[in-house]
Each structure stands twice: as structure tokens, then as C-alpha cells.
Amino acid sequence: MSEKMNWKDLLSAKRWGYEDRSVDSYLVARSEFQRDYDRLIFSSPFRRLQNKTQVFPLPGAVFVHNRLTHSLEVASVGRSLGRMFYAKLKEENPNLDADYPFLQEVGNIISAACLSHDLGNPAFGHSGESAISTYFTDGEGRKYQEQVTAEEWADLTHFEGNANALRILTHAFQGKDPKGFALTYTSLASIVKYPCLAIDGHLRKSHHRKKYGFFTEEQKAFEKIADELGLLKDPSNPKGYLRHPLVYLVEAADDICYNIIDLEDAHHLKILSYQEVEELLLPLCGKENLRDRLDGLLDTPSRVALLRAKAINTLIKGCVDVFVREQDKFLSGTFGSALMDALDEEIVAQMKKISKISIAKIYNAPTVVQIEIAGYRVMDALLKEFVPAYLKKNKNNYDKKLVALIPEQFYTEKQDSYSKIRCVLDFVSGMTDVYAIELYRKIKGITIPSID
């Protein structure tokens, strides 16, 4: 029988930076995992998500989802997944709480991880990630390849928001709390979808190595977390690990939300008709006959909302069933796909249909493509200005003024090129869409700052 991870080890209230503190989280009014959620909700990086693109440009007359509203909805779905998983295990084992006291906190753990899953994403959606990577692969940043290691170059040429989230949560930024966000080890591990370095990632046939989950600077931090929680080493990658099982539920919550919610936004923006949305969502709404309820709603957005709610409910139940049924595979690290890919064949087929339509009509809609193109230009321009200026040893007056625009929290005392580039990326990737555009216009002289 293959080696397995254990829930007693996987669920830990040990807090990053406060490892010596002992807290019986399940005995207090507000558990350590609820505190994780609260710390994220009140944090500046989380608030900035309200001005970061999810898919569609930030709202004008019609409100659509941004990264913040998306993260809140993912957290809501994630909490449901966790609570339903716990409830099913509790039915099978009445002594569950005595054996595994933190299992009752799974809903809180997953919802906290869901809140932070997009924390490291830059402005302009996934095009922002691509723009940063392209600066190093095809732009002026290519000249820095000889100044960094192969592992570091892989980080730079494959900028990854998931890895950046772990950095934001654990890195000791200048003048900030050296313990980072001081989240629990379990909450931190639950966001790392691809527990490997960039140089070992990007294997399409390996689900847990499709991308990567930590930068080289955070490798030791993740190893510390993984060893504490008893994560299994990846037999195919000596420097990597197998996923924490709860990552699958966090991933499922994200997959459920963006697949379904993007259709709702597309309807609000008149990209998809109501009939198109109904044909896509109704097969996911279970066996309940919704025809009378739908026909009784004269407001089409209300009809879409009903379909969305029913579809999400179906997907949540299906994911929980798989997670309970295949629990041994998740604990042994042998479950080789996304949780959503293991649902009933009819549901998987319908989700593939939704994905195909989304790619054709939503993600390639003119407004979406326009914001992606704008994002490329803005992010590339900012990197062209700030990276060389910060790396130069003999700065001219212009370089000094540019560096002065970088908040001191992003400075580093290290002198190597990778650490300095990483600091600029911390600054640029943390910008909102609005701030990035404004700063781009100002440093390019397109607009002149006014003095109030």
C-alpha cells in the first residue's frame, strides 16, 4: 500500500512566525483558521483586488466581477465544500472530532485559502502575468539571463500569481511585520496548487506540476511548511512535493465559480443571450424541473441567477462526493486530475462545452482582448522603466527619481540581480489596473500630475 498523508498532521494551527505558540484552536470562540480569514479580509492586498481585472474590463454602467468579488464567491463555495465534506465524514464516524479535532475547521481553512488564491495576481488578469513573463523572454529583460541562475530565470520567464501569493503571505518586506501575514501552516499549504519550482513545473501531463507554486526565494519557506504538515515528497521530482489534499477543494471552488460566473457576466454585457446561457446551465441544474420557476421570472437576470445557483449547487455536491469517495487517493497523492474532471461524465461533458463557448465568445470578446493588449503595453512599459533603474549601480538623476517612486517596503539590501528584479516585480505586480495605468501615463508624460 502506498504511503499516505494523515489529517492529524495536515491540519495544524501552527502559525507562520509564531511556531512556538500553542493554541487549542477548536476550544476558543474564534479559531485560528477563522483568524486567517479575518486577517485576509482586512488586508491591503486583498482590498486592492477590487481594482484588478477578473475577465472583463472594470465596470462602467454594468457591474461585472473583479478579482475581489470573485475571491469572495470562491471563498463562499469553498466553505460549502469543506463543511459538506466534514458533515459526510461525521456521519460515518461519530467520534470524528475526538480523533481529528481540526476537521471541523475544514470549511474555514478552505474559505481562507480561497480568499488568498488570487492575492498574487497582477493587474489586467492573466495577461498581466503574460506581460511580465514576456518582458524577460522577448523584451528588454532578456539581457538579465546571464546575471541569474537557471532556477531564478525560470521564475522570471514564467511569472506565476499562485507563487506570488505565497510570497506576499510569508515574505518579510521592509518595514512590514517580518512574520508576513502570520497565517496557519495549513492555510498556507492549501493555496499552493503546484508544489514545485518553476524549473521543475510546466509539465502538461502532471496535474500538480502544470505550473509551479513557489519562487526560489520561497523554496525553504514551503519546505518548512511541507515538512511540518507531512506532505509527501514527489517521487518524480526530488525538489517538489505532492499537493496538500485541501488544495483540490480550493481549486474546485475556483473552477466552479469562474466557469459559471463568467457566463452570468457575459449575459449582463449582452455577449451571450439568455437562451445561450440557459442551454449551457440547465443541464447542470439537477433533476429538479425548473421550467415553471424560470417561466415565472420576467426578469432575465433573475433567471440566470437561478440557473447559476442551481448549477453551483450541483457541482459542489458532485465534488464533495468524489472527495469523500476517493479520499485515500487524495491522501496518498495519487489522484491525478482536477476534482472537477472526475465528476459524472454528463457533467464533465457539459463543463467542456461551457469552456469551449467561453473561449470562443467570452475570452476573445473585443473588450476582453482590448484590456489584454492594453495590459501588455502598460506592464511592459513599467518594467522597462523600473527594472533597469533599480539595478543600476551608477544611477543618473532620472533613475534616482524613478526608484524614489518605489515604496520602501519593496527595497532590498541584497545586491544580486535576481533579488533586485524580484523587488521591482513585487511593486509592479501589486498595482491595481487603475494605478498601473495612471503611473504609466505620468511617467510617459501623457498626463501631468496635479497638485491639490
UniProtKB/TrEMBL annotation:
Q: What is its EC number?
A: 3.1.5.1
In alphabetical order, the GO MF annotations are:
dGTPase activity
- Spans traversing the lipid bilayer: none
Per the record's keyword annotation, is Hydrolase included, yes or no? Answer: yes
Q: Which residues form the HD/PDEase domain?
A: 63-268
Q: Which Pfam families match?
A: HD (PF01966), HD_assoc (PF13286)
Which keywords appear in this protein's UniProt record, sorted alphabetically? Hydrolase
* Superkingdom of source: Bacteria
Q: Which InterPro entries match?
A: dGTP_triP_hydro_central_sf, dGTP_triphosphohydrolase_C, dGTPase, dGTPase-like, HD/PDEase_dom, HD_domain, PHydrolase_assoc_dom
**Enzyme kind, highest EC tier:** hydrolase
Name by which UniProt lists this protein? DGTPase
